[in-house]
């Protein structure tokens, strides 16, 4: 079934990306297949398919998102004025 019409990505493509390329986040999915990279209408469905794929992986293969997928914390540069 098509998930992303803009890039012609199916649920099978997403499953293959998870299984063969270790895709484990929406960011990686967008970088790999383009999913949700144009109109964004497919984002929710793609996320559901991705989540389902990751849950089906055997425990040994669970992949933690890389640090790149974590929000970047910026130091608080605001200075207090005395
Ligand atoms: S349907 Fe996926 S980006 Fe438009």
Automatic annotation (TrEMBL):
Cofactor(s) recorded in Swiss-Prot or TrEMBL: [2Fe-2S] cluster
Stretches assigned to the BFD-like [2Fe-2S]-binding domain: 2-52
Key words, A-Z: 2Fe-2S, Electron transport, Iron, Iron-sulfur, Metal-binding, Transport
GO molecular function: 2 iron, 2 sulfur cluster binding; metal ion binding
Domain of life, source organism: Bacteria
Keyword Iron-sulfur: yes
Gene3D superfamilies per the UniProt record, alphabetical: BFD-like [2Fe-2S]-binding domain
Pfam families (alphabetical): Fer2_BFD
Family membership: Belongs to the Bfd family.
Record protein name field: Bacterioferritin-associated ferredoxin
Native organism: Beggiatoa alba B18LD
